[in-house]
Design a protein that fits this description.
Number of helices: 10
Order of helices and strands: EHEHEHEHEHEHEHEEEEEEEEEHHHE
Strand order of the largest sheet: 16-15-14-13-7-12-11-8-17
Strand content: 15-25%
Distance between the termini: 33 Å
Radius of gyration: 21 Å
Number of strands: 17
Shape: globular
Length: 373
């Protein structure tokens, strides 16, 4: 592949994560040209200049539109708050750029649909930042399912919990505004939907109950402001092929830091996975002798591609940022016309439709079909 030029919009945690991926993808994989870090955008000019130096970008601007007009930028990483994704992604695609946009796509379904349409019309590559599906362990679980290692899957349970909003006295955050979305559903439950899609396909029907543990939160200047979305959700899903699934998410769960607990039950065994122990999984095979049946723990190692690109020995562990490097390599593969294991905008739209169907289900107190088109 020829070296491509990179533009980055946003320099918070995910902006730094993208910068690390762009800086490391050639070193880790060795089969791509080193990307050129061309242009960085941040709303404060001083911060933009400082982050450009830190991250290794040649130029900086306080106006993200300047970045889109830069002819040396081929790919735009969008790592801004959710409500800005649609405008930036559509403008980038219309400017002829490839796009790597953090999840979720947008805060409204109409905006997500416009993003998917813009991607189709542009002919450019546009993927979402669902890096958990890139975990070598998760890829191996998919291979086990494909080969029937636990028979026919009949039920899936998945939980996602964090505690960054568990304290009732934590100050009001933009995450609690209606403008940021439904709350836990599109803040991070979309990650679980990306995993379910990767392993089984999209949800076809959903029924949801949403929870708001705290009605309001304190403001720094005094007083309190009403919480405008929901921090918890419990969802019943029917997946492709008739698989029954249960999804529970909570961003106010004390003690949980980055948990995605996945349980897969089949006719010949079961598979367990927990994101807080992301370099291992457990498998139970009912075909083992009765006196030796039990869950076996498997540690990630070089045999779980592409783990070996990072570490030559098993059990030494990859991390969140490493998964982003893998996702970056998948984006480069798509740009080169090679097979890609990433969530593109069309699949991302299906995830968004699932989220909005869940919100509709809660409002109407019924099962809701998820649109497939």
């Amino acid at each position: 592949m020829a070296a491509i030029g990179i533009g980055l919009i946003g320099t918070g945690y995910m902006g730094k994560c993208h910068a690390l991926a762009w800086n490391n993808v050639a070193t880790i994989f060795g089969d791509v040209e080193r990307p050129r870090l061309v242009h960085l955008a941040e709303r404060d000019a001083g911060l933009a200049q400082a982050k450009a130096r830190e991250f290794g970008f040649s130029r900086a601007t306080s106006d993200w539109r300047d970045l889109l007009s830069d002819p040396e930028v081929d790919v735009v990483s969008i790592t801004t708050p959710n409500q800005f994704h649609a405008e930036m992604a559509i403008a980038a695609l219309q400017a002829g750029k490839h796009v790597w946009c953090e999840k979720p796509m947008a805060t409204t379904l109409a905006d997500a649909e416009r993003m998917a349409a813009a991607a189709r019309q542009s002919g450019r590559v546009a993927i979402m930042g669902y890096n958990y599906i890139q975990n070598p362990v998760m890829r191996h679980i998919r291979a086990l399912l494909d080969e029937g290692a636990i028979g026919t899957v009949n039920q899936v349970r998945v939980e996602m919990d964090e505690d960054f909003m568990a304290d009732p006295d934590a100050p009001f955050s933009p995450r609690s505004e209606k403008a940021s979305g439904y709350g836990a559903l599109d803040d991070f439950a979309v990650h679980t939907l990306s995993l379910l899609w990767n392993l089984f396909g999209h949800a076809e029907q959903v029924m949801a109950d949403l929870g708001k543990p705290y009605a309001d939160r304190p403001l720094p200047a005094g007083g309190r402001r009403a919480v405008e979305n929901h921090d918890q959700a419990n969802v019943l899903l029917r997946l492709a092929g008739g698989i029954s699934a249960i999804l529970m998410v909570n961003r106010a769960a004390f003690g949980r830091k980055g948990r995605i607990a996945l349980q897969i039950f089949g006719s010949k065994g079961a598979i367990l996975y927990d994101q807080e122990r992301m370099n291992e999984f457990q498998i139970y095979r009912a075909t083992d002798r009765a006196g030796e049946q039990g869950f076996a723990t498997v540690l990630a190692g070089p045999q779980h591609s592409p783990y070996g690109r990072f570490v030559p020995a098993p059990g030494h562990s990859l991390g969140f940022n490493d998964l982003k490097v893998i996702e970056c390599r998948e984006l480069l593969a798509a740009i080169a016309g090679e097979p890609c294991r990433a969530v593109d905008f069309s699949e991302g739209l299906r995830i968004e439709r699932s989220v909005h169907a869940m919100a509709q289900s809660f409002a109407e107190r019924r099962w809701v079909d998820v649109a497939a088109g």
